[in-house]
Records
---
Amino acid sequence: MTLPVSQPTTRRAALTGLAASAALLAGPARAQAPLGVVATTGMIADTTRVVGGDRVAVRALMGPGVDPHAYRQTRSDIVALSRADLVLWHGLYLEAQMEDFFVDLTRSRNVVPVADTLPRDLLLAHDNYADRFDPHVWMDPRLWDLVLTNIAGALTAADPDGAEVFAANTAAFRSQLLALADYGDAVLGTVPEGSRVLVTAHDAFKYFGRAHGFEVLGVQGISTESEAGVRRIGELVDTLVSRNVRAVFVETSVSDRSVRALIEGAGAQGHEVVIGGELYSDAMGEEGSYEGTYLGMIDHNFTTIARALGGTVPDRGMAGLLEAS
């Protein structure tokens, strides 16, 4: 099997190279002030920076480890949002506590929900949330490509003079998204079929599961606001034991309490389960790191899941930029 992997000499050199490439794509520096964009999640903010280049100045409301399901706007957020040239939020009820605020803000600002208009036949519904769809579309790079198109469209509408730059940057980033998706297909395809069960703290990985043929089980529902009851934990413990699941995963933006309860419950039945790694679900990694980009976030998830469940992966992921395992 051949994996789409490159091995740069050093992590710093590779990141510098990526930054240089982005600067070239962005074109010559603007004479006018950049478009002020406020984005809710890190995934939207990172994609907007890639598409916009030096024509945009982007602020993300939600940083590493922040749960968008429970996030409420702060005073400084309100000031930034009220002054922004363009506001980009996810939609699909991801920012559940801010939805009414964004509806009101639409009356006075340019506000775009970048995932809310995705074709409904591509979205996953949830039995416990009538008329709602799973918002975690970034877990499938091929689906995120549609959000990329929406972000590029919003930037072009707000800054028509930048259309050529935005189109070039979008095309370049699209090729990276597709390469990332191919990498996921390759490494996750090496996981033995009987081991393709992903157990996490909450149901953020259904699009991942659909794209790569994994059964996904979350202790909580698609929103972290839902409670993980004793009955649900008991059901999952029985599943871990009966199906010989050996690894479960914690998330950077969700408490690991419920996942550790699974491990303890399985241990009480004589079945050893380990934490297979920490996944990025609703937020990216630390700012300035490879894992703090959309590409790095998903590369980390693909690589961590495949490795923990018995697959074959490069030591440092698709681009050789991941933190050493």
Note: Residues 4-13, 16-29 have pLDDT under 50 and may be disordered.
---
Amino acid sequence: MSKLNTEYLQRCIDTLEKSYEMIQKAEEGSIDYELYRNALVKGFEMTLEQSGKLLRKNITPFFASKKATDLLSFKDVFRHAHKHSLLTEEETNRWLKYRDNRNNTAHDYGQAFEEETLSLIDDFLTDVKNLKKVIDND
């Protein structure tokens, strides 16, 4: 299997980190804060989706066909990654939590939701960087 291209994932990580850095400098309640918070939420969503897509491709060799992995739900992709020792149980549980948060995005764009997403960013950045290493090493 050829090595997966993770350049776009790295770009998503870099953008998310920059948004996180900028929101920490902005005054809470200011337009800048809201702008960076919005960018952070969108960056989180994009990075999460890209992570799932790449991990799905990464676990394909463990299945009889590509079609079999195409049928997996997002969460099942991460469960299978854990099953094949690509992720720890703790990492997998956090990824499932990130997905739950992302699914809430589609239904609730309120400030409370955005602040909840913000509270996940430290762990998420660590986990997505570790996931990128796993994908790059295969």
Note: The chain has one domain: 7-133.
